[in-house]
């Protein structure tokens, strides 16, 4: 225990002066205090396909590790420690967000101590990432287009959980996304969720997406309800980008009661699963797309769904269901429903279901998406 506390003390020294790229060398020096010969941070890439050593001193010579089919990948996908004869891998979790794994070469692992170290390392990665580009250099495996850079910098962490409620999302193509986005916020008992699909692609679409996201946040933080939020976003889009539009789901979930309220602004209906079976989807649309709301003589219609403990909602853009195979066959709602149902039936976590879904969509379109594809899952356990 004294040695482990010394390792904690050394790591905490990074809080006040240091960068993410300093972490590999610090961990290497602290490894003997944890009963390990080496310690390394492995971060997942944007495509969530492989784990790569965090760029920095003492990280050279480490090879990337596939997420699928490896002990390190198992620790990442299950969010639980895995062990071999001479190595242990611990998930790096920032809240519910999966960052990667901590790898230690050791034969005598005290998992309780190492889990504390892994939690601290995850916090250091997140708190230090804004002071340099080491984390981004590690996670990017190909050049990111400017439109995607703009969108990713607007987004919250992919996964969040509180009091039995989880929301998690995925976006592709991760290096060239421009028109799709999502947002959420947990305020008291209310989980606010928005999913957006902007017309067009590239810089123009990312600029419109930026306006939409920030208008959504401004309305939410100003205390506006869903109807007024819709009208605020609609007004600003018409003023700044006349003729453009954004389809969206604007939703609120009362995490205490399971009351789900939403506006569907020209967007595909959510998929609702209960006890492993698909339920009738909420009515859609209930309003015109954002930016076109003035064409209708009435305001947006709000619908309410009462969730039951264990229910799952899947929000998605049309890039998911309209993905096409070589023969031109759509992926479609039936395939999406079957995929989600089967994956949850296997006991996979919500973030892992989303990771596998987006890889399935990319594979279905032979690696070249015709449109941005975004999905978000909300699970309510009551």
UniProtKB/TrEMBL annotation:
<feature type="domain" description="PPM-type phosphatase">
    <location>
        <begin position="162"/>
        <end position="380"/>
    </location>
</feature>
<dbReference type="Pfam" id="PF07228">
    <property type="entry name" value="SpoIIE"/>
</dbReference>
<dbReference type="InterPro" id="IPR001932">
    <property type="entry name" value="PPM-type_phosphatase-like_dom"/>
</dbReference>
<keyword id="KW-0378">Hydrolase</keyword>
<dbReference type="InterPro" id="IPR036457">
    <property type="entry name" value="PPM-type-like_dom_sf"/>
</dbReference>
<dbReference type="InterPro" id="IPR052016">
    <property type="entry name" value="Bact_Sigma-Reg"/>
</dbReference>
<protein>
    <submittedName>
        <fullName>Serine/threonine-protein phosphatase</fullName>
    </submittedName>
</protein>
